[in-house]
Design goal:
Elements: E1 6-11, H1 15-27, E2 30-35, H2 38-47, E3 52-56, H3 64-72, E4 82-86, H4 91-99, E5 104-107, H5 112-143, E6 159-166, E7 175-182, E8 186-194, H6 198-221, H7 227-240, E9 249-257, E10 262-268, E11 273-277, E12 282-286, E13 304-307, E14 313-317, E15 323-326, E16 329-332, H8 334-341, H9 350-358, H10 361-364, E17 371-378
Parallel strand pairs: 1-2, 1-3, 3-4, 4-5
Antiparallel strand pairs: 6-17, 7-8, 8-9, 9-10, 10-13, 11-12, 11-14, 14-17, 15-16
Helix pairs in contact: 6-7
Length: 379
Amino acid sequence: MPQVQKKILLVDDDRFVLLLFNRALIEEGFQCLTAHSVEQALEILNEELPDIILSDYQMPDMDGFEFRSRILEDKRLKNIPFVFLTAYTDRNMIQRGLDMQAVDYIDKETPVPLVVSKLNNILQAIRKEHEKSIHEIRVAAEALNLSSVPSESPKIAGFGINFLYKSFEDYPGGDFIDFIRFDDQYTFVVLGDVMGKKWGAWFFSFNFLSYIRSAIRLCVFDGDLSTASILQKINRVIFMDPVLGDVLSTLSLLMIEHKSGKVHYSGAGDLPLIVYTASDKSCRRMESSGLLLGVMVDGLYNEDVITLSKGDQLVLISDGMIDFEHGGEKKSDYDLFFNLVKPKLGKSNSFELVKNVTFSAEKSKELIDDCSLIFIQKN
C-alpha cells in the first residue's frame, strides 16, 4: 500500500526560504502548506491540521515564540509536533524554544537534505511512540474484556448477518457494534458512533454501550419490544448523565424477529438504512427522524417495520463510510456511497461485493474516520 503523504506547515517571512524548503519537501513526498506570517499560519490551521509545523523564530508583527504560545493555548493544535527554524544559534533562544515544548530546532544553515531527514526522523519517532501506546492500551482493554466491536457475527437461522469495521489509522475510535440475542426469538442489532476523535470517543463508546445493553435487556424483560421506546429510554438516561449528556452519539437500533422475518428499526441521528427488495429488485433508503442521543430529553424517535422476504437485504453504516478528503477538506457524500453500493445488492455474494468496493486496500488508505458497516440478508 502506498505510504500516506505527510503534511507539513512551513512558516517564514523569507519567501526564498519558503520556496527552497517547499520544493525539497515536496520531492520527498510531503504535502506542504506555506505561510508568510503567523497570522496567515493561524488562518491555515483553522482549516487544516498538519502532521508537523516548521516555523522561523524571527518574523515581523508576531514572532515564532508568540506563534508557539498561541498553538499551546489551542487544544486542537497543541499536540502537533513543532520545530523552530532559526538563523541564530543563541543558546538562550534555543532554550526558550525547547522550554515551550518544541520537539527540536534547526539552523537555517543546515543542508536541506539533512533538514528533511530530521523531520522524517521526528515523525517516525512520534509514530512509534503512538503505536506503542496503542498496543499497551489494547492489551489493557483485552485484559479487562473491553471491546466496542464483537469478535464475530451472530448465527441466526434464516438470516445472514455480517459486519465490517475499520478504525482510522488503527487508532481506537468512537464506532461501536453489538448483537444482543434473546433465545431463538429476537436479536437486537446496534450500530453507533460517538462524536469525537480517537481515545476520547473510544473510552466513551463503552459507557454508551453499557447503557444500551442494559436498557435493551431490561425493556425486553418488561415486555417492551418497541425499538422507538427502548431508544427513548436510552436517550433519557444519557441526557441526565452529567458526563455523557455533553457527548453526542448516533445510534441505529434494529430488532429482528427470527420467525416472522420482521425487522423493527429506529435511529438517533444516524444515516439512512439501505433497503434492497428482491421481489422488484428495488433499492431505497429509509431515514429515521430521531435526534442524536442526549440532545433533548425527548428524542422524537419513530419506528419502522420491514418484513423481509427471501433475498431482501439491509445495509447500515456509520458516517465514516461516506466521509472523504478532497483538496485538503473533509467531504461527506451519502449519495455517492449509495450509488456505489446499489449495483452490488441483490446478488448471492452481495456482502463480498460491497466489502470489495468499500473496504479495499485502495479505499482504506483514503479513510479519514472510523468506518463500520452491517449487512443483513434474509436467506
